[in-house]
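quick one before i forget lol
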Amino acid sequence: MYEFDIKTLLRNLWNARRRIVTNCVIALFVGLVIAFSIPKQYVAQCTLASEVQSEDIGGNLGALASIAGINVANSSDAIGPDLYPSVVSSRSFLVDLLYVEVTTEEGERLTYYDYLKTKTRLPWWGFITKAIGKTLKSILPDEKKKSSEEGERIDPEHMTREEESLVEGMKSLISCKINQKDFTINLAVYAQDPNVSKTMVDTVMVHLQNFITAYRTNKARNDLQFYQKMEKETNQKYIESQKVYADYCDSHQGIILQAYQTELERLENELQVALSAYTQMKQHVQMAEAKVQEKTPAFTLIEKSTVPNKASSPKKLLILIAFLFLSFTGTCGWLYVKLLFQR
């Protein structure tokens, strides 16, 4: 290695200015080719807020914390807002989205699955990688799992390589972010068609709302089903007791024997017990219905989605700046290393 001062470096850079300019022009041309080869993508976004069920910490500590602007509430949900992005990127959630019907900008109606397979454009190097993938697939052993037949839904637990690749690609197209300050949910969907991106972000919002609602009301709905079942059973027993009591009264009219009076009192008691059980179960059903309503979260749509008019990517100017920067710094770095190791 040889030592040199900054003047020597600047002099060598000035002498090599033609090479630097040439490399920058080449990089500019390559950047233009790449920037115009990447298909346009549009992003549709929406923001909503969901109730967070929590157990407040009582006492002076909670009051002081609220004055200071600190949230000390303990969330009672096992799946809180922090886990919503994981829910959106889960296989079962994404597979359900594949069968949503979308309408392209040209007015063609098809499922999101067909749109991703037939309407998504690739850059020119994407066809190269796709050809390499097919070649490797032909070399590798055949898949043991059969692909889903026409009209058959994809099983999230038994997917082929092609289906896995499709679902993994969806993860980069659907974004779910949580604002930790106010716990708002920001959803975004990228697509090469603006209408498709708008339709899909609305669908993701609805599916996420349904998931949150189903999770939070799961126990309450199970209790409601149990009490409804018990209500039907007690109602049936009450009707049967009524019939037995009425039949006994009709068949023993005018009889004043003590045995008749004793049996009549026993049947009346059974009828009252059956009525009391039925009335109690009916009250439980009403309370369970109210509990389901109480547990159902309320969602507030802060910002509605709109059909994007401007493509979000590729950002051609940034690509060109990046190529020019890499070319300039790379050439200067090469000249610097050359001065270090060459006299």
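fyi The chain has three domains: 1-38+314-343, 41-217+297-311, 220-295.
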